[in-house]
């Protein structure tokens, strides 16, 4: 009988410590109450108790991978005329390049245009220096214009301006 009592007390104490509480655990509030050596009551929050299913909590989050199609953007320009065009939110890189060239060439009036930059799931912006040289920023949202200006000023040390504000091609959830 003594052994059974010792075993039961041991199991009861294991149950208390399983949730990280060294005192009285209050499951309704998720708090632990202990009384220190001077008689003061200390209450603190603890995590939910763990179950006995291999040490994992019962409400373990699941990882679910979702296939989200990529989106593409491209920028084309005719270096002789300086006329440019772009495309955003396209389903494929080829489609983005074709649309950017089509936009740049203005129905054949501005041929030939060439792709100078493209982006997958990101943003593009274009800066130009006083000589007409163009620089691209392609990065995360909100930073493409700053990147384009930085590249322009670093390489040419000239007056630079944004000629195409940031445009993004991001996946749709």
From TrEMBL:
Keyword match Signal: yes
Keywords assigned by UniProt, alphabetized: Signal
InterPro entries: DUF4189
Annotated DUF4189 domain residues: 72-165
Range of residues in the leader sequence: 1-18
Annotated protein name in UniProt: DUF4189 domain-containing protein
Organism, as annotated: Neisseria subflava
């Amino acid at each position: 009988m003594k052994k059974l009592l010792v075993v039961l007390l041991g199991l009861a104490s294991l149950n208390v410590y399983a949730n990280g509480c060294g005192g009285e655990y209050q499951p309704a509030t998720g708090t632990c109450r202990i009384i220190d050596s001077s008689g003061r009551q200390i209450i603190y929050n603890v995590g939910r108790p763990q179950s006995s299913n291999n040490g994992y909590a019962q409400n373990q989050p699941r990882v679910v991978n979702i296939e989200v199609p990529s989106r593409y953007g491209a920028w084309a320009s005719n270096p002789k005329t300086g006329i440019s065009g772009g495309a955003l939110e396209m389903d494929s890189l080829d489609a983005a390049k074709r649309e950017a060239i089509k936009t740049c060439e203005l129905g054949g009036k501005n041929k030939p245009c060439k792709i100078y930059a493209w982006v997958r799931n990101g943003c593009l912006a274009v800066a130009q220096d006083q000589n007409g040289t163009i620089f691209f920023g392609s990065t995360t949202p909100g930073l493409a214009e700053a990147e384009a200006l930085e590249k322009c000023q670093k390489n040419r040390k000239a007056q630079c301006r944004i000629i195409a504000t940031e445009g993004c091609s991001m996946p749709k959830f």
